[in-house]
Every structure is written in C-alpha cells, then in structure tokens.
Specification:
Transcription Regulator spoIIAA; Rossmann fold; seven-stranded mixed sheet; alpha/beta; 38% helix; 440 residues; 3 domains; three-stranded parallel sheet
Length: 440
Amino acid sequence: MAMHVTIISPGIYTYGAMLIGGIIREAGYRVSIRRDLKAAPADTVFLSLYSTQHLLDPGIREFVKNHIEKGGACYAGGPVSAYPEMVLGELGCSGVVLGEGEKTVLQLLSGSITELERGVAYKDKKEAVILPVSEPVSVEKRPLPLIPDDIGTQNIRGANVYIETHRGCLGACTFCQVPRFFGHAIRSRDIEDILQEVRAFKKKGVSRISISGGTGSLYRSIGNQLNPSAFIDLLAGISEIVGKNNLSAPDIRADCITGDILEAIRTYTIGWIFFGIESGSDRVLNLMGKGIKISRVSDAVAECRDHGLHVAGSFIVGYPTESDDDYTLTKDFISKESLDDVFISIAEPIPGTPLARMVLKTPDEKNPAFMPTTGEYRPLGLTVGEARCFDLMQHADMYKPGLHVITDQIYDAYLTEAKKQGDDIRAVTGLLHRYYGTPG
C-alpha cells in the first residue's frame, strides 16, 4: 500500500499547501489535506505554516509531539522555513523544508532527511544542520493543486482562494519576506497552465478567485519593465471562466500601473485595487525600502479613480523610529485621499527581514511595540504602536466615502484588534531575541 501523507495548513487552505499536495499526489502517494489538526492517521505529515504565530501555538506543538511519539514523521514548511533554527527549537519537528519545497518533499518521502544535500534543516543530536536551497524552481508547468472539496466555504479577504501567477518581487521592502523567499527575478507561469487550474477550482465550488504574487501586474514582466499585454490577457482569460464579478487582482504596487492595466482591472475584475501604502511619511517609506514617495502614491490613487476603480490601502504603524510627526503625515494622507477601505497593522518583525534585524538592535524602551503611550489613550494601557493602530482605524473610518459611525461595538473591536496585534508582535520579538540575540 502506498504511503499515506497528510498536509495540514492551519486555519486556511493556503495555495502553497494545495500545490505541494498536487505534486505529492502526482508522484503516486495517497495524500489528503486539512486546515485543522485532526489529521487522519498518516505516515508523514507536512505542516504548511505561513505565520510566525504558528510557532507559538500550543495546539500545533502538541500535535507535532504526539505524531512523532506515534512513530510518524512531521515536517514543517512554508514562509516560516526562512528561520529554521526557530522552527526546530519551538516545534521539535522531524525537519524543515526550506524555501520552495516542490522537489524537497518528494526526496523526503523517498529517503531519509540525513541523505539530502540541500533544501532541508534538521537536528543532529542537539545541533541544527541547515542545508540551504541552491537554486529556484521552475514554475512554468506543474500538476494541478490538491483542491479540497470544501474550498468553496473559505473566505480570505472576500475570495475563496488566491492563486499564484508568478514568483518574485522587484521591491525591497524591509518588512516583507517575499523577495527574500522567492527572490527579485520574476518567474511567471504559463497562462494555459493557470487557466486550467482556474477551471479546476471552479469545478470544486470556488466562486471568487483572487490573484496573488505580491504585485499581480508583474506577471511576465521582463527585468524592470512591465508587460501590460500579458497581464491583460491573463485577466481576460480568467474572467472568461469565472466572470468579472468573481475575479479580483487587488495587490499592486503604486509604481506598477499603467492606463491599460487599470482599464483591464476595471473591465475584467470587480474593480478594486489594494495598494501597500504603509506610511504618509517619505522618511518612513525610505526607512521601509519602499522605493516610492508618497506623492507618487497620491498620483496612483487619482489615476485609479480616473478609471472608475475603488482603492484600498494598507498602513503600518509603530515602525522603529516612527515619530509623532511621521504618524501625523499618515493621518493627513488618509484625510486627503478618502480611501474606499483601509487596513492597519503594527510593524511585525518577520524573522529574516531587515526589520527584524532592526528590532533586534532596538532596546524595548525605544521600540513602539513596547513603549507605553503617553497620549490620550494612556488610560487604556496601550503601547505607542497599539495606540497608533487603534487611533488610525477610527480616523480612517471618518474619511471613507459614505457615512461610517464608530459605535461602541466597533470601538471595542478596534481596541481588541490593536491589543492582539501588540501581544502577537511582542511574542515574535521575544522569539527573535531568544534565537538571534539581544541588543548589545
């Protein structure tokens, strides 16, 4: 009987987990996929972990411990593989699949982890052995993902699934893991391969599909040059299958748009664009490595509206050294632009990023994630980062088009969210200090 493999993607079915499942299935193994920890008995389990918070989850730790005690193998992969020492130390798993794991997972299923020469990390006695990936994988052609029967019940920012059209990012944002995980070079998939996959998702009950990849308009770009016609063909092809009301291509850099691209988004999708704006301060944007000034973002918002598009934006507050003046500039930008939707987060030091290294060098008393606020929210016991997050959520609501009333229920929800983000970020910072040192 063929080996039984279970893939677990806690909370949501990530595209990466489904992709790996399809590759394992094509290789002839029995494979199932779950988004909970109630896995059916399996010889091998692959955990697809997309958040540092997973390493702090007691349920995941207990699952790994129990599965290994029963004689099974349990490997972790996904974005968390960028910091294997932390994964091995916190979860005690059999090993870590590093980076792009398409080839590595099959090697693990056919042999011992100690026989592999690259792409894995494991403990040898008490020492971590880390064998980095040597080269990126080709994404042009690959098997269909392992699509679960209940994929249609999933909701990620309004979509059932985010599909991958390419890998890599031209940007160098200091808080982002994408270019460090996939590289800067753009590797695009074959359009017919993508459309075949879209049909498979639709057949399984998916109604809303979204394009991921960091910046959708980088599809088939050549060097630093956009390839608008390729991106437009992609949108047109997917829209023909699912309908424009069921397709979104939200995540776009403000400096990666053209008139033709915006018109295609209006014609073939639900008509929303999501810019990672992050700050209204050029000083902070420079610190973040965004490679763009806030004036260019304002121009991009205006261009989108000229094409009849809705514009949402994400903002990061509490970045180390962010001043009150920097924060005020962010509030001013939101007031001026009246974005259709706004998402606020406190700067999270994702391990392996320049931001994480910056946080490691920043004493807690100078880190907004730890510094108690002295402003109007002091009675709530918030940190500077939490206070700015809470304040900006309310501020953004005041300037969204249409009437938005901040009720007691909304106020409490925003406060709870700000506090949760603060707790999560301090926990991640604690892990960083534990594994990668403390300020001197």
